[in-house]
Design goal:
OB fold (Dihydrolipoamide Acetyltransferase, E2P), two-stranded antiparallel ribbon, 6 strands, mainly beta, two-stranded antiparallel sheet, globular
Length: 61
């Protein structure tokens, strides 16, 4: 889990995620989406995001 981003910072932002995995118990909550990111220099997650706007729900190749 990352603490790099606040919920308010993510609203309206496009990021890359996997949504067709079955739900999985992660600690105390049930996860239904896998956000994609890389470790930053400080070890915290840096989310992957398109550099141009794309259709929401578009397939990632």
């Amino acid at each position: 889990m990352t603490e790099n981003y606040r919920c308010a910072e993510l609203v309206g932002r496009q990021i890359a995620a996997v949504v067709n995995f079955p739900p999985k118990q992660i600690g105390a909550f049930m996860s239904e989406v896998l956000l994609l990111g890389f470790p930053g220099e400080d070890g915290e997650v840096v989310l992957i995001a398109p550099e141009q706007a794309v259709a929401n729900g578009a397939r990632l190749y």
